[in-house]
Amino acid sequence: MFKSDKNKTKAWKKLESEYKRFKKVEMRDLFEKDDKRAEKYTLELDDLTFDYSKNRFDENVLNALLNLAKERKVEEKRDAMFAGKKINSTENRAVLHVALRNRSKKAIKVEGKNVMEQINKVLAKMKKFSDAVRYGEFKGYTGKKLTNIVNIGIGGSDLGPVMVCEALKRYWMKDINCYFISNIDGTATAETLKNLDPETTLFIVASKTFTTIETLTNAKTCRKWLVDALGEHAVDKHFVALSTNKEKVEEFGINPENMFEFWNFVGGRYSLWSAIGLIICIAIGFENFEKLLEGAYAMDEHFKTAPLNKNMPVIMGLLGLWYNNFFNIHRYCVVPYDEYLKYLPSYLQQLDMESNGKGVDKDGNFVKYSTGPAIFGGAGTNVQHSFFQLLHQGTDIVPVDFIVPAISHNEIGTHHEILLSNVLAQGEALMRGKTVAEAANELKKAGKSEDEIEALKKYKSFTGNRPSNILLLKKIDPFSLGQIIALYEHKVFVQGAIWNINSFDQMGVELGKQLALNILPELQGKSFALNHDSSTMSLIKKIKNLRK
Ligand code: F6P
After folding, report:
1. Using one digit for the tens of pLDDT, what is the confidence trace for 489-538?
2. Distance of CA 123 from the midpoint of ligand 1 (Å)
3. Alpha helix stretches (DSSP H) within 116-195
4. 13 C-alpha vs ligand 1 centroid, how far in Å?
5. What b/e readout covers 47-85, taking b as 16+ CB neighbours within 10 angstroms?
6. Known catalytic residue: 385?
7. pTM, rounded to two decimals
8. What residues are paired with 452 via a beta bridge?
């Protein structure tokens, strides 16, 4: 679409020339020349501030990027999603996680049917059940309150719930504890179950398809653990399922009355707003879960209605794409300065990389341009002491999103002020850097000799001109968290729309699953390994020997 001459679009070409004009411009000069830069390039929504001024662009670049969004019909594509059109083209499905948090009374229709009715019905069921568990009305088989809630799921059926539960830990009911089993590694199950009492444990088996081998295997192990302790009759009081697949839920041995339904128009990595959020409701209460939905809805409305140049997800998406496709930077870092948000980078990894890690466009052509970047991150200030060296002085530039609440849930002494000063310092350091001359000057002031200055000045210099965004919020609460998650969802959408890829399937995970199914019986000695490369063959042999 973009790189072959035939298809290179006007806005894309303009951006190529903008890149040539602009690539050497230093952000520190832009700030010096324009003392209104931060004001100009900051957006606000409720208590959320998005400062994108420390990025490598000027008004001309921004206009060219906005023209690209128009040319690639981002607004029309967005409207098609909200209108329930089947934009997941390879699976012929609508994409309606936005309907799950539609707090208006407006209908959203798929093929003429208002999906809000079924969504609200399940939400009501989630409220009833989560209240009953929280207040001890729905008890375990032996009559004890269920206080240990274990979510068994993987990917989108795990990362959203675990990230949100952890982020909102301060809102948990006092006597409720949440656990998450995702990995097929038996250690995950063993380490979780070893401290639990079957009589007070509720298992939530979360799987959109209810065919995922990791989840079903873990769920079977947990079911056996429960039945061994309390008997088969206890299952109804200790197991619920979240799924789109009623048949498989029944087949597994969970009462369909204990099933919370969702639908194919909800992608796994977009599902925390659906029944998949049940553990969140139990932990923080349905009213708080509704606030999470409200926050996401506020961002949805902003995305739908704000003009492109004032639209947070659009600007965020465009800047990411600017680095990805014009600076050839194919990595992206997210650093929340908040311990409660420590799982956000892992969550965003799936959201972004499973959505936009695609190589075929919506017209069925192999793409000739880069799509989704590799996402990584971790909580600050911890990561300052691990990978930030590379962010500051490495040869590869990595754009960073810093996410920080102005107020901590744990304002102890000066902890939070130290944390805040660090996040601001990181953004400033990445942007400004330190020239060799500045480094030399500093060394001189510190009393170093000429020889020492000469030897050290380059090592002590920082190229700077490294981009970062700051997302500043007042406090991590359900509403602000909902806003942030939806912001990232829509950023991913904007980029996928411009790249003309389907951000809503995940066929890239299939091949590995398929091959694992062949290898499993070979490892178990039930069939012979024949059709593998020599490396895989020899590893199968070695593993079998080691496990004898
Ligand atoms: O393997 C990828 C994937 O399909 C994800 O997209 C999904 O979130 C995860 O597996 C779990 O799937 P399920 O909810 O159907 O168990």
Report:
1. 999 999 999 999 999 999 999 999 999 999 999 999 998 877 899 999 99
2. 22
3. 116-134, 159-167, 186-193
4. 38
5. ebbbbbbbbbbbeebbebbbbbbeebebbebbebbbebe
6. yes
7. 0.97
8. none
